[in-house]
């Protein structure tokens, strides 16, 4: 009963979204009406989707709907929503509300007013619809169709500000690279279809089981294609090279959705194909592939964190940080896949950490992108050199950004702390040397995340003398940020509640089946207990309040501060000349090199191939472009406009086809 | 397991005791430095007197807003909260399975609060100090964390009190000794003293992160440093010099150990000059490799 209702709810939400696409496309000339309608449709569908998503998790149901049967490819196009879909449906629902609210005022910025809304709201709703489709698709064909639809809609959104050539370039890069990933998925799907005869996930499941017994190398090939396809979307290094280009180009609410949910759908692909769809016979494959997950996870986490620490642009910083957080999640999943045979409890902890990080990072990253968008709205820049000193000008944005930065840095009692602790716990006590050392890498990446989160907050809001003018953004933008900040605090203070729900989802997977009962007493309300003993963030908060009380008594009552100008040791410097260089050390290159010449000690320099490896655009993206140009040039040369030549080509082609047919039917 | 009454009493008494005892370490350090300089030096209570004097001063500041008023409390609060999770030999009422990670993160939060306070003042010297402190954190925090991970891996738990018990029972091994040396060298930057007082660097940056802090805010930041000195030394003493003793003795022993280790650090402070940031970085990269070898030894059972 409930299950049918939930599928109906998902379909209703899809219908609302589709209706929204049509309606907003029709009214797109009228800006105000379109913005109101677009927000309305997004919020309405989100409420329905949230009901469906939470319902799927809480009732633990699976609901199926056969759309139509295509006899030609022996496939029934099916929608099926289970608990894993429920999690991602809830995330889509939770994040599309703030994004819609934020875009309501954001698009009225003079900067964006010249852009037509027909390229925003219909595409925004279509984007949400496609993401919903991806998580409820239950055959490869539907999955790929929605996957492509998602890429297409987000491509238009990334290229929204089409006057700037760098935005178009970023969007094209995004389009090409994600299409390479999608191509890998398509090839994998076709191989699975050839081997199994159908695109349905049931048949895929059986096919994987058959291949695991008969043709393991082919299965490894399929897994490699799937991994590349999903890693491109999940923005792991080096496949996620499109992300740092696409985020600055996209409008900020879109960045929030891209980073909050869409790259998490790559993770969804990992979970669905490497864990949920895996039959028992293929479990050893998960064990092998866990190494790949771990390596790519650690490398992405460290490189993303390091790259985020040295960038000069708020949204690029957040984009690199997305790569790093994606790496953490992948590492957690990899640890779960590695450990499930040896130590189911530890595996469960790792995968629970990964799931918690999906939830926490979705909220935090969306919040920070909205903050960056607000700063961009207020000041017209996202470069750290132009920002700074905004704390008193936009106090609410700064307050929410403070919560977001502290959360992503992993400080208790906010979200990322619990997930990082859980993953670290599983990695360190795995009794396997490489896995323990991946924990070392993860800790390094966590320190990087402290660094770049502090850098993001202080470069945007502090560092320079406070600006006197009031720049606070409109109400809907503040509301969207406040909503996410409150959610982060709630999830951070009651991680046990969230983890309990997540553990139901995890025990739904066959690899971790039965572990839910085993760990049932472990996740308790507001408490987290990885082995024994418990932790409540509330304890930290309570302790903090105790200290505050003592200190407040010791410090005494409020006194009026006396305002003085900034003290510079008596130097006469104008206030606008103040402020740190974003790199941290002003004029480092120009002055310090000469003032403190480096001692001639031998230094280790990374080899040049390693430095080249760190720039995937040079060795991954540009060869694709030049290769494409080369092929199209070859094709162009064949088309000279001379009829004789065309006839000659046709004859040659016919001969070749006849030869192939003759070879095929010779026997 | 201890009863909740004990835990509650611990949660209220420990912060008070930490706040009360820690300024004594400042007096001790200054006394030691003065004696090595052949001076008489201030009385041992100088830390308390400084705090009282600072708290009574007029607040003179270029920026006063909710965040700059909150950050000193955050710094002191997180440092003291980290202290509450530490064990006294095997006695730790609020211990749980991940308290090592919480302590590390709370120490980091305390540092970050001081850094943000320096950045919020708008003073370029404050920002320079903040940037240096952050860069130092990148190299110091992993070293301390890896050193603690060595013990965690050896004893198979993240729970500090169990690590102490394990270490006291099994004695030193190659990996724990290496980790202890690394942890001691990582402890010095946490003190914010020479040779690693890059964030304040009075001679170059005029106090750096603390330059624009005055009155009660400066007092709270100073107090944060005192508390951090105490709990970092406490953490080091309990984990790397573990002795299991019954109740009154373990507390006394802890105080003795803290005073001794802190005195050694103070002597080092007087003897050494400040390192430049790149030297400090190079130093800790070497220590990091050292401690990673210790971790590798721990994993193969040495």
| H and E order of chain B | HHHEHHHHHHHHH
What would you call the structural class of chain A? mainly alpha
Note the overall shape of chain B: globular
Helix content of chain A: over 70%
Could you describe the largest sheet of chain B, including whether it forms a barrel?
none
CA(first)-CA(last) distance of chain B:
31 Å
Which spans of chain A of ≥5 residues are poorly predicted at pLDDT below 50?
580-601
Overall average pLDDT of chain A: 84
Structural class estimated from helices and strands of chain B:
mainly alpha
Number of domains of chain B: 1
Task: Describe what this molecule looks like in 3D.
The complex is a heterodimer of chains A (667) and B (302). With 667 residues, chain A is mainly α. Chain A has 2 domains: 2-543, no CATH class; 620-664. Chain A contains 25 helices and 3 strands. Chain A has helices at 2-26, 31-59, 83-106, 110-113, 121-136, 140-158, 165-196, 201-214, 216-234, 243-249, 252-276, 283-309, 314-339, 344-379, 395-409, 415-428, 433-461, 475-493, 495-507, 515-518, 537-555, 588-595, 608-613, 616-638, 643-664; strands at residues 63-70, 75-81, 562-563. In chain A, strands 1-2 form a two-stranded antiparallel sheet. Chain B has 302 residues and is mainly alpha-helical. Chain B has helices spanning 4-21, 23-36, 46-55, 66-84, 99-120, 124-155, 160-170, 174-191, 202-205, 215-240, 247-271, 277-299, and one strand spanning 60-61. The mean pLDDT of chain B is 86. In chain B, helix 4 packs antiparallel against helix 5 and helix 6 packs antiparallel against helix 8 (174-191). Chain B has one domain (4-299). The longest helix of chain B is centred in the middle third of the chain and has 32 residues, at 124-155. At the A-B interface, helix 15, helix 16, helix 17, helix 21 and strand 3 of A face helix 1, strand 1, helix 4, helix 5 and helix 6 of B.
